[in-house]
Amino acid sequence: MSSPLATLTSSNYGGILLLLSVLLLAICVSRDLINLAPRRVKLPGPAGFPLVGNLFHMRAGHARSLAHWTKLYGGMFRLALGEREAVIINTYADVNKTLIQQGAAFQSRPEFKLWHGAFSRALDPDAPTTIGTTKFSEQISKYRRLLTAQTSAVKLPRFVQTFGTETPYILPQLVNLLAESSKSGVAQDLGFHFWTTTIGISADILFGQRFDEDTTRLVADVNIKAFRQRSLATPVHDYVPFVATGERILLAAASPVRSILRALGCASWLDSIYEAEAHAAELRDAEVAYCKDLLRDLHERLDAGDPTPSQMGDIFRTIDDGTLTPNEELRLATTLTGSGMSSGTGLTWLAAHLAAHPELQEKAYRAIEDVYGGEPPDPLDTDRVEYIKALGTEAGRYFASIRLGFPRETHEDVVVDGVLIPKGVLVVYNSYQINRDPQRYDFPEEFVPERWMEGHYGRTDVKQPKVGVPHLNHGAGRRVCMGVPNVNKMFYGNLVLLLHFFKLERAPLGDAARAAVFPNLRAVGEASLEVHPIDDQVSASDPQALPLAAGIKLTARDPQALARWLAEGHLELDQWDRPNPTDASLPSDIVDPGIRGHY
Asked: Averaged over 208-229, what is the pLDDT?
């Protein structure tokens, strides 16, 4: 029996080719007309492809694409991302006009199918999303007030002091990990050391207990991978409705249909959908499980009269009338459990950079020596060594580990420079590009810690007051990250101990060290000696830039002093003898009323 295709005549072929040619011409002529995204925002911007708009430009690598468009269209421009119309903010001046001066209009969040559907609500349609990814409401305002009281700079010493006096504080555990690595004499990637430490500190402070290594590894792994579910412009079905409809039909199709697709070699796309959805559900399952376990354990300890300060514990003590539902408790817990992730990412980037620049290490070590006179530094005395603070601030600016700030959505109609941005428009502040705004920073493509020292604030050519956030890694305006005090203290404490006790040197990873890279997705390559913020990241389209693996050989500066420091356990640092402040005992004039959370 002949194939139906074999019965086509040459005229049939000609007709089909003519039809395809006309269709292709129509698409080319109307590429700017066949768009799903509305044209409500009268801003300039690049032309997009039919139906998908600028979706694939972004998926190819948003940092370079947005930098190119900033040169062409200025500090604010419009993109079409499938059916979503987006406004991209690229300069400090435009951040000031929008997120800061008109913050109320830009305080909401958009919803995305993968994050809010497959991940956040994968197990339960009523499951809570994190506070940071939820549209603005009076309920979110309530949660933010609860969390602000627990994440302010004045409240933090209440938590860290307790861990110093009653349990071994986790920062010595970092030094112990580094010391063990230095004994091996071979290069290792330090991602595990930093992420498990910073996320471990966050979780300790949140629940009032030390985590074992397995739990810390799990929490770190889940949060790093879960953050990748928030990628902008991916997956396609988040932005193109008919793709989502087609996927639902295919996913709902009977098994024989899927078998036929696989036999025809057309199932790789279908399989990738299954894998992405299943992976999101697995991550959510793990997150919900450990948060529920930790909350249950905390309630049991509180009921038994445990007075240990903790963020969640203090919230429960404040609200003792049962007004928080289990879902609300879970929302608070999932929001804060992985809050040390960005610190771990920044430290992993910075350590690789310092390992390739011994002159920066030596300058940092001398600065520590000048302050402490050879004695071990206090990791919680965050203001003592200016150069260490400057290294941390510059790492946040230069590497911009949060490349695209958490997307906003206009909460109401707003006019910016005469241009109407209606309610419900997706708004993205381009952290990477803003952190390289030449009006804000001189030598923006260079790593220059001195721009934050001796009265300088972003520029080396002028001294100026410390006005506004130093960089956009933690956001700005109404939903700036509430955890900045925690982030700064964790970053400083890790960094000052690392540089006091060890020298770092870049070296290739051996097979065993490559197999141990954490998380394992970073082992797809090894960072260059330059440690380039774009070229040496795992994915060009992730919202958080994870650095590729980097081999670092550690050498103890003074092995005997290091051994003594670890043996002491750090229960004698003067930090532990300081008063244990509570909100009631603190004078009102030192409470920062400007702290507002992105949660």
From this structure: 85
Measure the CA–CA gap between 82 and 232, rounded to whole angstroms. Answer: 12
DSSP code of residue 321 = S
Residue 526 sits at φ, ψ, to 5 deg, of -125, 130
DSSP track, 269-291: HHHHHHHHHHHHHHHHHHHHHHH
- Joined together, the tokens standing for residue 311 give 């963020």
Q: Is 549 helix (H, G, I), strand (E, B) or coil?
A: strand
* Percent of the chain predicted with pLDDT > 70: 74
Query: Which residue reads 């408790």 in tokens?
Result: 329
Crossing angle of helices 311-318 and 268-303, rounded to 10°: 60
State yes or no: 28 annotated in a binding site: no
Q: CB neighbours of 493 closer than 8 A, spacing ≥ 6?
A: 171, 379, 380, 382
Distances from the Cα of 23 to the Cαs of 15, 17, 27, in angstroms? 12, 10, 6
The pLDDT assigned to 300 comes to 95
SS3 420: strand
Distance CA 325, CA 198 (A): 29
Q: What share of the chain is helix, strand, coil (3-state, %, to 5)?
A: 55, 5, 40
Q: Where are the beta strands (DSSP E) in 73-215?
A: 76-81, 84-89
Residue 490's CB is within 10 A of a number of other CB atoms, namely 34
Assigned token pair, 238: 């988040």
Q: What is the arithmetic mean of pLDDT over 150-170? A: 53
pLDDT digits (tens, 9 = 90+) for 80-95: 999 899 999 999 999 9
Buried b (16+ CB within 10 A) or exposed e, 216-245: bbbbbbbbbbbbbbbbbbbbbbbbbeebbe
Q: pLDDT tens digits, residue range 102-128?
A: 999 999 888 776 556 555 554 455 555
Distance of CA 326 to the CA centre of its chain: 26
Alpha helices (H) along 98-168: 138-151, 156-166
Strand order in the sheet with 84-89: 76-81, 84-89, 426-429, 408-409
CA 342 to chain centre: 5
* Buried residues in 262-282 as b, exposed as e (16+ CB within 10 A): eeeeebeebeebeebbebbee
Cα separation of 340 and 223, whole Å? 10
* Count of Cβ atoms closer than 10 Å to residue 60 Cβ: 12
Closest CA to 111 of 412, 330, 406: 406
Rounded mean pLDDT, 481-489: 76
What is d(CA 105, CA 442) in angstroms, rounded to the nearest whole number?
31
pLDDT value at 100 more than 50: yes
What phi and psi, each to the nearest 5 degrees, are found at residue 506?
-70, 140
Contact 224, 241 (CB under 8 A): no
In terms of phi and psi (left: phi > 0; alpha: psi -120 to 50; beta: otherwise), the region of 332 is alpha
Number of neighbours of residue 360 by Cβ within 10 angstroms: 19
**SS3 label, residue 338:** coil
> Cα 185 to chain center, whole Å?
32
pLDDT band for 368, please (50, 70, 90 cuts): very high
CA distance 377 to 162: 19
Expressed in angstroms, the distance from the first to the final Cα of the chain is: 65
Evaluate whether 426 touches 497 at the Cβ level (below 8 Å): no
* Helix axes of 213-227 and 341-355: crossing angle, nearest 10 degrees: 90
